[in-house]
Design a protein that fits this description.
The chain is α+β, with helices and mostly antiparallel strands. Helix content is 33%, strand content 27%. Residues 179-186 have low confidence and may be disordered.
Length: 186
């Protein structure tokens, strides 16, 4: 799937040199919004909390969005539980925001999570990221917190989305027999 004639999704690893702009800008953005609010060591400590293997198949994945070979966005997911993928690190380059790139990343990550057998998405965002809250709410995610109160009381804002319809369509496609799936009650 591509978002623009020259935009391409690439599944890779956080160790890919093309991931460095994404990670560097995430650290800068998180540090500028939160400082050491969550961790005395800042955002770098949070981003290094999970080993790269957590974002590798079969349980996870790491996605970059490239435009003419340059990283302009990305995201990842890891195993949360047997039916749930946890999305992490969803990012678009600061000068390319408000163009639908984050939505395209979400859609692609949801599809890949479904292809890998997940039926539900779980994610969190920080209370100082109203753009992310808006993105998730307008793309079918359910807030697992009261959206009418000051988000700072929660610090971390959890969301979920059921993607079982995607998982079932990929399962049917892979098996080649939608009738057999229907007969099995899936």
């Amino acid at each position: 799937m591509t978002t623009d004639m020259s935009d391409t999704f690439v599944y890779t690893t956080p160790l890919d040199p093309r991931a460095k702009p994404l990670i560097d800008e995430l650290i800068y953005e998180y540090d500028s919004r939160y400082g050491n609010y969550f961790n005395a060591e800042g955002a770098a400590a949070e981003l290094n909390r999970y080993p790269p293997e957590a974002f590798a198949p079969p349980h996870g994945n790491f996605l970059l969005l490239l435009r003419d070979g340059e990283t302009i966005g990305g995201g990842a997911f890891k195993h949360y539980d047997d039916r749930t993928a946890e999305f992490k690190r969803i990012w678009t380059r600061h000068d390319l925001r408000r163009q639908g790139l984050a939505r395209a990343l979400l859609v692609e990550l949801e599809a890949q999570a479904a292809r890998q057998g997940y039926r539900r998405i779980y994610l969190t965002t920080g209370f100082r990221q109203p753009e992310a809250v808006g993105l998730y709410l307008t793309n079918g995610y359910t807030a697992l917190f009261d959206t009418k109160v000051d988000p700072e009381i929660y610090k971390s804002l959890p969301f979920e989305k059921d993607i079982s319809h995607l998982a079932l369509s990929y399962l049917a496609e892979a098996s080649g027999s939608p009738q057999r799936l229907a007969a099995a009650g899936r």
